[in-house]
Amino acid sequence: MSTCSISALGERLDFTSRKHNFSQPSSRLSGPTVPILQMAYSERTPPPRHAQTGSSLCPAVSLLLVLFTCNVRYAACGASNIVLILSDDQDVELGGMVSFFFICLFFVEEVSALCILQTPMKKTKLLIGDAGATFSNAYTATALGCPSRSSILTGNYPHNHAVRNDSLAGNCSSPLWQKGPETLALPVYLSKRKYRTFFAGKYLEQYGTKEAGEFAHVPPGWDLWHALVGDTKYYNYSLSVNGKEEKHGDSYEKDYFTDLILNRSLEFLDKRSLGQPFFMMLSPPAAHAPWTAAPQYQKEFSDVKAPRDGSFNKPGKDKHWLLRQPPNPMAGSSMDFLDDAYRKRWQTLLSVDDMVEKLVKKLEDLKELNNTYIFYASDNGFHAGQFSLPIDKRQLYEFDIRVPLMVRGPGIAPKQIVKAPVLNIDLAPTILDISGSDLPIMDGWSPMAAPNLGPSRSCFLVEHTGEGSPVPDPACPKLGCGLSHCLPNCVCEDSYNNTYACVRTLVGINLQYCEFSDNESFVEVYNLTSDLSQLVNIVKKVDPALLQAMNQHLIKLQSCAGSSCHDNGINGFPQRLYLPSYRSLFYRV
């Protein structure tokens, strides 16, 4: 194989963070490298998994503390049922959950207008969000499906479960994953609590492939298993049904995947064992490509276009290498492509909205609704034209890392908006805590375990390992090698040097600090209080002392495991930033 010299290669998968010297501000930073990310699960020595104790942990996320009237767990409240609905690539920032698009009909004679809110998820918002709590600051620790789903299942950051991307080489459903993190995943612990466990939908992108054990592999802990083989499809797919292959065609009534997931879940509920708690995880394909809507919804939202505000069609000025490549302004064909994708995404979500409605109705008919917690979440966000990138995820910005999260259930008061930061790694420990399980050490946090420790984590980690091709894309030979996921007009959404780690803070200051593993040692810093769209990289304007401290905190977070990931800075940086004497650190005078 020929050697690539293109900048996209960066340092490829050898992700190291630099201990920067910020005494002299620069856009190209240098310094000694220290390895802080152990990629191979087999080579990583995990810390002892002792029971969590409140005295050893810093506050993490408030999540359900403010919601539950019953703060004591299983023994006092009884075993509750739990449902987790996990959509695919569903954004928050662009209106994929609750939109701000309005259709207005103007009445000239009366000088008035009738405006109707457009959104694909009206029923879901009503039946889960309005009936319980909506988390306005929910994030994924990585903006990509397989690593994010692995984090949801294990409660751990990607650097600890070692799933780096959606490829088998990136440990997505690999034998290494199956022998390691999968044996310590959420359903294993729920099974020990005598929960009846049910899965239907998309599991992990490489699940069921030949190298991953094909359809015969059923992950431990699941009693009933209906999992998609491979990546997202709506028709013409295969399922692993309890380890046996089941092929499906293109009949809407028999095969449309979102509806099949619903129907299998309703059948499970009808046949459930009375008195035994259950856990259901439903993972519909929407709103992931190829965006095949149900027949009755294929003409919906014909007037909707991707939002044109914020960073839409803006150049990637002062951003990392990959963001500096797309042509700006975008070509008309790219605009048409992303608008079409945006509409189709919404159309596919209408079937998920129907799923939520029918599932809630079934639980109500069975008199189980009042004893069931229903979580609604997504694996990652999405972009459609932001910084001239047509469509995808994988980036560090808010549109890709913010996700929807809502929950309803026993003791949760309706119509609550929770602003405390919460991560996808917090779902597993919280669900286990609801079940009454003795919590294993996880990077994520259940607030029910130690309610006296405080209201919120002050910062958290976002990480991504870029994926590239060792040979040029045949459709875009001039780009060279090292890139991947290249779209029309040869705009590529990922590359080897799109490997980064970020510290995101929301308490005290609204800040994001990111370092790239590339040959530029690139750093991006954003003040989201004044720049919510992350248009201006302020790395050259920030006091070097702040950058140095953020660098040190990032190093700690990238090597954290278990309770050390719960550090919110109370005993050091960045908590000191919140004190008046350190306010001057933010900008150099």
From TrEMBL:
InterPro entries hit by this protein: Alkaline_phosphatase_core_sf, GlcNAc_6-SO4ase, Sulfatase_N
SUPFAM superfamilies referenced in this protein's UniProt entry, alphabetically: Alkaline phosphatase-like
Domain Sulfatase N-terminal: 81-436
One BP term from GO: glycosaminoglycan metabolic process
Entries under Pfam families matching the protein: Sulfatase
Recorded GO CC terms: lysosome
Sample GO molecular function, one term: metal ion binding
Source species, domain of life: Eukaryota
Cofactors demanded by this protein: Ca(2+)
CDD domains xrefs: G6S
Family: Belongs to the sulfatase family.
Protein name: Glucosamine (N-acetyl)-6-sulfatase (Sanfilippo disease IIID), b
